[in-house]
Amino acid sequence: MNDLSRATAPFETGAISHVGRVRSANEDNLVVRPEFGVWAVADGMGGHENGALASATVAAAIERIGAAQSAPDLLARLEDGVLQANAELRQRINDNGGAPMGSTLAVLLVHERHFACVWSGDSRIYLVRAGQITQMSRDHTEVQDMVERGVLTPDEAKRSPRRHVITRAIGVHDTPELDLDSGEIAGDDVFVLCSDGLTEHVQDDEILLAVGEAGAQEACDALLALTLQRGARDNVTVIIVRYHEDDSRSTQWMPNMRMQGSDAP
Prior knowledge:
Blueprint: H1 5-8, E1 11-18, E2 28-33, E3 38-45, H2 48-63, H3 71-95, E4 102-103, E5 105-111, E6 114-120, E7 124-129, E8 132-135, H4 142-148, H5 154-159, E9 179-184, E10 190-194, H6 196-199, H7 204-211, H8 216-229, E11 236-243, E12 258-259
Parallel strand pairs: 1-12
Antiparallel strand pairs: 1-11, 2-3, 3-4, 3-5, 5-6, 6-9, 7-8, 7-10, 10-11
Helix pairs in contact: 2-3, 7-8
């Protein structure tokens, strides 16, 4: 418990990020700012150094959003932050002779009873409500486009060697492209934000099972442990946000945790 507990009620947040079993560096970054109604996962691309720098640049811009006066204001602040991060990455790319650099982004915004899911790339946002799990985001990948055109089945897409080729990311184009889904939050809603290092190894029904009645941090730990057990070929980042309609409950807030070693749970 810390001094954010009053400001962050009625949210219970868990967060964890791990390098995985194969990679030598963690190119994921995360943002947990429940006092502002902002949670985000950024997964860098472009090689170890460039990928980590890209995701850190995007995360830093999201960290600076601050307190909003309304849901539209919060969304506008996010847009400004993304535009600033994109411009900074484009400048770095130009300064380094066109070296590839970019980052996926998955963001949950909450203001009062309004929520918005905003994303670019293949980091995901799920909503668990009334015992059902729904993927709120749509993967911006080549294989997802092919599934929607009927060229591939969902099972074929999971096995495709091009399943990780993304079609959108922050820093890749002069103008970033974001998708948005929004709605009204309900009692006991749970949001799960994650990089593709989780969904490479863990199915949606397993995410639902892990969330269950477990605390937010306990569920994050369980999902990481399952991913590591299955090989964790990529960096793994998970944020879980549980909304308690009875805001008289104390909020449990866990700090961002980035683990570099492979001896974690």
